[in-house]
Design brief:
2 domains; alpha/beta; TIM Barrel; six-stranded antiparallel β-sheet; about 325 residues; four-stranded parallel β-sheet
């Protein structure tokens, strides 16, 4: 639950506009737990009372925002928060500019970090976002999990994009967005658009929600900083592959030698023939591949390619 669920100056007081306990209980019935958003400043003023109150209520944890520096005081604070949250069996997701420092090794209840110019920046961005998207896997993501908040369903090419705060669009194609769910390591996977957009794009939504939150193995297939990236990740016997490019369209060859022996059925989402003009254009297809295949793919300007490979035999 994002900003607004509590009183701004007192996190122990829930907003009169919602019944948080009822929401938490309803979530339990559906197998869904609730994570609460909080500012670092407000939380640290009442941390013991807040953690005790909401852990007893059944809340899963907190997404803590506006960690806007990484000096000694802030680093020490992240360790204190993580320890107290662990004592209450609460997960923590750190947002703001704070990047991974390794504390999740000590406190595995810390499942994610922002520390990146994520999708929300396209509300006002006039920068080259697709180039940034294919730079951060080599740079920021080397430090650890990265909450980018992908999944935009309003997709624009370079000529049509414009910053709109109330109804934002992404730079690049639909498949560029889908590929992020493989390329970006993000245990707390998010959907950045509104619910109606996902209902209207059910095929893409079903594809996104098929992706796991963690993987057993990762393979770097190909890439060049600021140009393009292609990564494969495995969970159990299923492989997930994602490729993204900057504003330059390009052809890549994906070597599937990382697959174990056997035949895989690949559910593929690729840029449509008009994706260079309409970023929402894509094509879904089902093909079969094995570890001897080298598959040629085409990425449109700002484009992407994503696939789920399920083992048949």
């Amino acid at each position: 639950m994002d900003e607004g669920w509590s009183e701004s100056t007192d996190m122990t007081k829930v907003s009169e506009k919602i019944d948080l306990e009822k929401i938490v209980e309803y979530g339990k019935e559906k197998g869904v737990r609730v994570i609460l958003w909080a500012t670092w400043y407000a939380l640290t003023k009442q941390i013991d009372d807040v953690f005790e109150k909401y852990s007893k209520m059944g809340v899963a944890g907190f997404k803590i925002d506006f960690l806007d520096r990484d000096d000694q005081k802030m680093v020490a604070s992240t360790y204190e928060i993580a320890e107290k949250a662990a004592n209450h069996k609460l997960l923590i997701d750190y947002h703001g500019v704070y990047k991974p420092t390794g504390l999740q090794r000590t406190y595995p209840n810390v499942i994610g970090f922002e520390g990146v110019k994520g999708m929300e920046n396209t509300k006002w961005a006039r920068d080259d976002v697709p180039r940034y998207d294919v730079s951060i896997p080599f740079i920021r993501m080397m430090a650890g999990p990265m909450d980018y908040t992908p999944g935009a369903m309003k997709n624009a090419n370079r000529e049509n994009f414009r910053p709109i705060h109330a109804a934002p669009m992404s730079q690049g194609t639909r498949c560029h967005q889908l590929a992020m769910y493989v390329v970006f390591e993000e245990p707390l996977k998010m959907l950045s658009d509104n619910p109606t957009s996902y209902v209207n794009e059910q095929e893409c939504t079903d594809f996104i929600t098929s992706f796991p939150t963690t993987f057993d193995e990762s393979v770097a297939i190909d890439g060049k900083v600021g140009e393009y990236v292609a990564i494969a990740r495995r969970q159990a016997d299923t492989w997930y592959v994602g490729a993204m490019t900057n504003w330059s369209d390009r052809d890549l060859t994906l070597d599937f030698s990382f697959l174990s022996k056997g035949t895989y059925q690949a559910e593929v989402f690729k840029d449509g023939m008009n994706a260079d003009r309409d970023g929402t254009d894509y094509k879904r297809e089902i093909v079969k591949v094995d570890n001897g295949d080298k598959v040629k793919i085409h990425l449109s300007s700002g484009g992407g390619w994503a696939a789920i490979l399920r083992k048949l035999r």
